[in-house]
Amino acid sequence: MNTAIGTIDWIPVAPFIALSVLGFLIMIIGLFFPRIYRETLGTITLVGLAVTFFLILQNWGEPRYAFANTIVGDKFSTVFNGLFVVGAALTILLSLNSQENRYLLYADYFTVIVFATAGMVLMSAGTHLLTIFLGLETLSIALYVLAGFRRENAFSLESAFKYFLLGAFASGFLLYGIALIYGATGSADIQEVTRWIQQNSLTGSLMLPIGFLLLFVGLGFKLAIFPFHMWAPDVYQGAPTPISAFMATGSKAAAFAALLRVALSTQSYTAIAWEQVLWVIAVATMTIGNIIALRQDNIKRMLAYSSIAHAGYILIGFIANNELGHSGMLFYLLSYTFMNIGAFGVISYLSTAEHEFVTLGDVRGLAYRRPFAAIAMAVFMFSLAGIPPTAGFISKFYIFSAAVKAGYVWLVILGVINSMISLYYYLGVVVQMFMSAVEEKAPATATQQPAVALALVVSMFAVLGLGIFPSRWLAVFMEMARSFI
Amino acid sequence: MPLTYYLVLGAILFSLGVLGVLTRRNAIIIFLSIELMLNAVNLTFVALSNHVQNLDGQVFVFFVMIVAAAEVAVGLALIVAIFRLKETVYVDEINLMKW
Amino acid sequence: MEKIIAVLFMFAVSALLALIFFTLNRLLGPRKESVVKSVPFETGRAPITLPTHRMSIKFYMIAILFVLFDVEMIFFYPWAVVFRKLGILGLIEMGIFILVLFLGLVYAWKKGALEWE
User: Fold this and answer.
1) Average pLDDT over chain B, rounded to an integer
2) How far is Cα A108 from Cα A41, in angstroms, rounded to an integer?
3) Cβ contacts of C74 on chain B, cutoff 8 Å
């Protein structure tokens, strides 16, 4: 029990510590220099995230465990953590909007974003159910605060309130699941649980399958998959736009990280033949998301339903349960981060403090008023719809071919039909922007927003780059998937 | 007493909490029901910890309590903010956006 | 099993006792309604205002802070039990834990959550 300081392997925990220190640092700077420029704070945050990114990359390689096997640095956590930090950095850039977010207390806001990222890092690097739970809660509590950051705005508060009630409800299920797994196997360490399952059987004790089921229900809420998707549209619509982007990408990826880590290392998912259940859930998630998105006039709400649908597509990779499927999920999550943050970013780019630029009427004739924003939006919409040569197309291609390889032909057919349905509303936005006449009464929004524009350009390059040269990244993800099994 | 008693009690409390969340309309009561769920889990953890003869379960309880306290702080702050704005804590009246 | 019976017995006895006292109070106590009697008791003086006004939001801030810091204290108990076993590392870890709590306190302080007036 006597652990000397020298014997601790600091590399696996370094990203988490760096993010925690960064969060406190920004908080203290904000406390003692309340008049500091938010651009300065944003730059400090971005530098801190860059340092964290460097520390994350040090973990690529063989698994290194630390703190009594509760946290690990391996290829899996490296890839996911890198994704989270990139997502957080883009969110920070979007938040440096000179118009929309005048009301945000920047130091507090950045602090909470950084802490949320720290929670995500714990979720993907945790190898003990306790660490995963703590990561999830750190992330969730931070997101409740962020969703309600516009305290005087009824929509924002309502969004935070709903997210909070359902999130806390879901974490109750997650915890009960963990308790039952612990009771059945005598440990909450994922490796110990795996060992127990290998020696005994998964269905020997009734507690264990029920425990996994409840755990996945808890994560399902975070993923916003059917039938736990009801909160997503309201929350994404009401939250500040950069935060909606952050929730739809980072928090979803973190929940997928925890799901993959638990399900793959214990192989709990193949053993109980949940493929059928997941099959139905994936199809229902895609279909409901896409069908309801067709009817939306509010672009933020439409993107929320589309994010539900995308969670369904990503689940197909999980169901396929082969190397290509898992690496395809990673590829999908990475491209989704860029295209979704980009799409929300365009809304943020165009919005002013008085007028949130969210309805289809707002974007009418945008191509003639704000060509840059319109082109960016078109790229992200094409990518979300899965049109080549964008990242969205390649990710769907990988996931679907993985499913075909695993023999789920019908699932792929339904997925393709769903993609075609989604074309309608994604392209609807593009049509509104390029084909419709300019409305004179549309608000003039010609402000310079270099930070948001930078985020948009980065996302556009990433979406096109991943779409045109995907093989290098796929190789990295394949290596990760291989290392994991 | 056998383990089953504790597990059944935990399950009953948990179900009561779930029922409370699903049926009650007052945000504070819903919140209390969520706390009931968490404490049912705590009871389960302690009972199982005794059953499997290690202390991990009890450590879990500490962390659950801490997390619950943090959730209380954020949750009550949100409820107060909502009440200031809308003069109500009934969830069916908090419906600018449809559920 | 005997222990449970003992506990149940104790429950029954205490419930019965409470019931008896309430009933006796009902039966034996004099009941004379008067205006003075129905006034809320407030340190023996005539009430100045109605007790229905809103609670100040300050109480709420202090209560939230109290709940947070109070509950964090539970980590000290297991730590204190194994303090000698943990050695210097345990001391450092608890120092970091307290530092984090302290930063939280500084934040609350600077934001004015502790100001009463």
Assistant:
1) 87
2) 10
3) 62, 65-66
The whole-number pLDDT of residue A437 equals 67
Structural domain count, chain A: 1
pLDDT of residue C96: 92
Domain span including residue A365: 273-485
In a domain, A297, yes or no: yes
Q: Which residue of B has its CA nearest to A148?
A: B78
Interface test mutation site (partner A, options B39, B64, B80, max chain A beta carbons within 10 A): B64
| Residue A353, in any domain of the structure | yes
How remote is the C-alpha of C15 from its chain's centroid? Answer: 24
Q: What is the ipTM of this complex?
A: 0.94
Residue B98 is assigned to a structural domain of this protein = no
The verdict on residue B89 lying in a domain is yes
Q: How many domains does chain B have?
A: 1
Mean pLDDT per segment of 10 residues, for chain A of length 485 residues?
62 92 93 83 92 92 85 90 94 79 74 95 92 95 90 85 91 94 89 85 76 89 87 88 90 92 74 74 91 87 92 90 88 93 89 73 80 90 90 92 90 92 90 73 62 90 90 86 75
Which residue in B1, B59, B73 is closest to C67 by CB distance?
A: B73
Domains by residue range for chain C, with CATH: 2-110 (1.20.58.1610)
- Using a CB–CB cut-off of 8 Å, the residues of C that contact B are 4, 57, 60, 64, 67-68, 71-72, 74-75, 78
Write the CATH number for B58: 1.10.287.3510
C-alpha span between A222 and A217 (Å, rounded): 9
Confidence of residue C64 (pLDDT cuts 50, 70, 90): confident
* A444: DSSP letter: P
- Phi (first) and psi of residue A298, to 5 degrees: -85, 120
Distance from CA of B1 to the nearest CA of A (A): 17
Output the pLDDT for position A200.
Answer: 79
> Does any domain span residue B99?
no
Specify the pTM. 0.88
A129-133, C35-39, C60-64, range with greatest mean pLDDT: A129-133
The separation between the first and the last C-alpha atoms of chain B, rounded to the nearest angstrom, is 45
| From C4, C57, C71, residue closest to B65, measured CB to CB | C71
B84 close contact with A: CB closer than 8 A = no
Q: Indicate whether A116 belongs to any domain.
A: no
In a domain, A461, yes or no: yes
Distance (Å) from the C-alpha of residue B83 to the closest C-alpha of chain C?
12
Burial label for A43, CB within 10 Å (0-12, 13-18, 19+), is: middle
Residue A364: CB partners within 8 Å, gap ≥ 6?
Answer: A432, A433, A436, A437, A438, A439, A442
Chain B residues closer than 8 Å to C78 by CB: 59, 62
**Which pLDDT score is estimated for A86?**
94
Residues of chain B positioned with their CB less than 8 A from the CB of C71: 65-66, 68-69
> B84 is in which domain, residue-wise?
3-93
Residue B30: inside a domain, yes or no? yes
What residue of C is the nearest CA neighbor of B55? C78
How many C-beta neighbours within 10 Å does residue A57 have? 12
